[in-house]
Write the structure tokens for this entry.
Amino acid sequence: LREESHFFANGIPFTITAQNENPTQDYSAKNEKAIQKQLRTEKNIVLEPRKIKKDKERKNDTKRVKKAVHLQSPVIKTEEEICQNYGVQYWRMPQTNKSEKAAINEFIKFVSTLPKDTWIHIHCRSSDSRTTAFLAVLEMMRFKNRSLFDVITRQRDVGGKDLLKMPSQAERQQAVRARLDLIRDTFNDLH
């Protein structure tokens, strides 16, 4: 759900980021083909571990690369190629350059074209509240008899972020409130 480029090197997932751990214009989805081409010409690649903040909610962090991995002549694949290998339809919706409302509307439009029993996998780089918000929208679309509170608490109970819990940083609180308002508006639109 973000605009950074995700790849696999010998089956190990990695994300192209800048030094400050944020996607940059140079590493956006728009340039993914060029990045992919360059990576495939590299004889040696070093995957550095991503520094993450201590987070009590990150329970399943066992597969994260803990130290630098050096790969010689790596096989590079994109998320889309991995999905195609398994016969899975891939749809990418980078969200950073559009409003969240536009992204949710695009998501609703896409999901509306799928058979009702289609299994959908949603992720963003940090599996933060963005993933939970879109999963909540999906649940609202599929289970119209559930209340907004039931949808949000169920998403939290199955391992998503608690969209009702406010973070301590004031600037982050504003973003979380805006996302919650958007989810509430989307719920009202769908019901």
Notes: The longest strand covers residues 6-9. The beta strands are 6-9, 12-15, 44-47, 69-72, 76-78. Confidence is low (pLDDT under 50) at residues 20-27, 54-58.
